[in-house]
Design a protein that fits this description.
This protein is α/β, with parallel strands linked by helices. The protein has a single domain, classed as Dehydroquinase, class II (Rossmann fold, 3-Layer(aba) Sandwich). Helices cover 36% and strands 17% of the residues. The protein is built from five helices and five strands. The chain has a five-stranded parallel beta sheet, with helices on both faces. The longest helix has 16 residues, at 147-162. The relative contact order is 0.18. It comes from Aromatoleum toluvorans.
């Protein structure tokens, strides 16, 4: 009995998958129950599920990360550069109006990002009208509720197809 010889061919590793990191700032873990008249009834899990499904359909890995702690968000942004994340979608929430450190982390990694806010921040209290992130963002989406995340993802997917 003879055995067929297998040729030793080296297969190229699969191409790295495109990755989008979705960052959610403080109190967004309470979506669905926190001020539903302002932020809606959609939960963070609902948002991630919809984004993940859309990402899979496009062959893109979607990772979601929420923290109420500024330092953890900064650490996650810095890790994104090492992990070769291609795009960031960020809802800095209350840090929009206060965190130069989070802004500096995004500038340091130079990963393109879209800033998202569920309510229209310009229709809220005056201190919410300014964001430390908007001038460096590729785009800003506010006032579209949970759909704003999907709009940001669709935009990111369009941008990533161009590269």
């Amino acid at each position: 009995m003879t055995r067929a010889k297998r040729s030793k061919t080296t297969e190229a590793p699969p191409p790295p998958q495109t990755r989008v990191l979705v960052l959610h700032g403080p109190n967004l873990n309470l979506l669905g129950t926190r001020e539903p008249d302002v932020h809606g009834r959609t939960t963070l899990a609902d948002i991630h599920s919809a984004m993940d499904a859309r990402g899979r359909a496009a062959g893109v890995v979607i990772e979601s990360f929420q923290s109420n702690h500024e330092g953890q968000l900064i650490d996650r942004i810095q890790a994104a550069a090492v992990e070769a994340v291609d795009y960031i979608i960020i809802n800095p929430a209350g840090y929009s109006h206060t965190s130069v450190a989070l802004r500096d982390a995004l500038a340091a990694v130079a990963i393109p990002y879209v800033e998202v806010h569920l309510p229209n921040i310009h229709a809220r209290e005056p201190f919410r009208h300014h964001s430390y992130f908007s001038d460096r963002a590729i785009g800003v989406i506010c006032g579209l509720g949970a759909y704003g995340y999907m709009a940001a993802l669709e935009f990111a997917l369009t941008q990533l197809r161009k590269t």
